[in-house]
Amino acid sequence: MKKDFISIWDLTPQEIYDIFNLTEKLKENFSSQPLKGKSIALIFEKPSTRTRLSFEVGAYQLGAFPIFLSLKDIHLGKNESLEDTARVMSRYVQAVVIRTFEQEKVERFALNSSVPVINALTDFLHPCQALSDYYTLWKKGKLNEDIKFAYVGDGNNVCHSLILGAAKLGIQMVVATPEEYRPHPLILEKIKGTKIRIITSPEEAVKDADIVYTDVWVSMGKEEEKEKREKIFKPYQINTSLLSLAKKDALVMHCLPAHRGEEITDEVIDSKNSIVWEQAENRLHTQKALLVKLLG
């Protein structure tokens, strides 16, 4: 029976750790090509740097052939129904990776695909990012019930997936965001009874934190709100003053791209506390493991 990766919520804690362990094995055996002869379609309605590169390079390293399809090449739901596109593509490739706007579009595609579908980002979720981030923390020995994980900023798609991952793994997470930018009610409903708190104070969230995570204030598609958001989120900037409230060895994370001088300062992202570049690299490694697990 085929398995998709639409949300990190779809995985059990054991499955998450299985992917982490598989990631380690693939890193040790770099020349292994378990997907040799397979083809993987990459449908990107939203442009990307890290997501496209990491999936294309990862597929190639595994021996698979990545086929990139942009908005110029494919129009999901236009001229042909999304359902029919999914059925046809399933006859040509062994997996489909989709980066688009609507979560519902990925879910509908997966329902009609006979091959595994991976959600490479929607406006609602970014599960590949969260999976990679938690692998990064696992490697650092920071994935346990005693850590305090502070997320400061917009309650966006990255925040949603981090919250769902924290709930699955039993992590103590505090999200600091302005009231009107709180995570979606559907996400909050899923995490009732967990160790996750949603507050408005960035200082309270960061105090004694082991991990401090942030993301852009203005996500793709929200550009018309830029001026408004910059004013509202200004107190949520991760700078040396705010970071001083965290533990001295606190790890700083950002999913990139970073808008330096807005949600994070140069002094912080380039500091010894920052593991941002390690995070970015691990997208490649965890997505390779995800592909192997779903196609193996």
From TrEMBL:
Superkingdom in the source lineage: Bacteria
Main location: cytoplasm
Domain Aspartate/ornithine carbamoyltransferase Asp/Orn-binding positions: 145-292
One Pfam family linked to the record: OTCace
Keyword terms: Cytoplasm, Transferase
Protein's pathway: Amino-acid biosynthesis; L-arginine biosynthesis; L-arginine from L-ornithine and carbamoyl phosphate: step 1/3
Entry coiled-coil feature ranges: none
Domain Aspartate/ornithine carbamoyltransferase carbamoyl-P binding, residue spans: 3-138
UniProt-listed GO biological process terms: citrulline biosynthetic process; L-arginine biosynthetic process via ornithine
GO cellular component: cytoplasm
Protein family membership: Belongs to the aspartate/ornithine carbamoyltransferase superfamily. OTCase family.
Record's protein name: Ornithine carbamoyltransferase
Organism: Aerophobetes bacterium
